[in-house]
Amino acid sequence: PAAISPQHFPAKLWGLVNNPRCRSVQWDDSGKGLLIYQPLFDREVLGTEPEQPEGPGSEELAGAANVFHTKRFRSILRQLNLYGFHVMGKALEVKSESGSSSTVHRFQSPFFCRDHPDLLIYLRPQKGNKRINPFAGLQIPSNIQE
């Protein structure tokens, strides 16, 4: 969407999930959830393995390896959390036709829905949940006996 900076984390994520060449980030069946296939995401997007995708348009996806400026999946999870995405259940282990297993993470945000890019402007970094000391600023008399 034009109203959001392409450097904004949700805009980058939107670009990946809507890129037909990106197999590691997909919409769920309802279009309200996000599925991230971790080992494939590590290769395709984070570029943690030297293997690059092949075929038509591979050069476009190969450039995605620098899109988030990190090679750690944990940093992506932190960003998702920062922007208010919620984990939808435990990560699933899925077996592929070749017999290898893959970890699939499911996330959801009310402002990240297929066919509604206009909602992305509402995705802002959440303020930290700072713990508040309930006794901060109270004067406790020194003559209290225990």
UniProtKB/TrEMBL annotation:
GO function terms (MF aspect): DNA-binding transcription factor activity; sequence-specific DNA binding
Keywords of the record: DNA-binding, Nucleus
Annotated protein name in UniProt: HSF5 protein
Record field: transmembrane: none
Keyword Nucleus among UniProt keywords: yes
HSF-type DNA-binding domain boundaries: 5-124
N-terminal signal peptide: none
Gene3D superfamilies, alphabetized: Winged helix-like DNA-binding domain superfamily/Winged helix DNA-binding domain
GO terms under cellular component: nucleus
Family: Belongs to the HSF family.
InterPro entries: HSF_DNA-bd, WH-like_DNA-bd_sf, WH_DNA-bd_sf
Gene coding for it: Hsf5
Superkingdom of origin organism: Eukaryota
Localization terms from the record: Nucleus
UniProt main location, coarse: nucleus
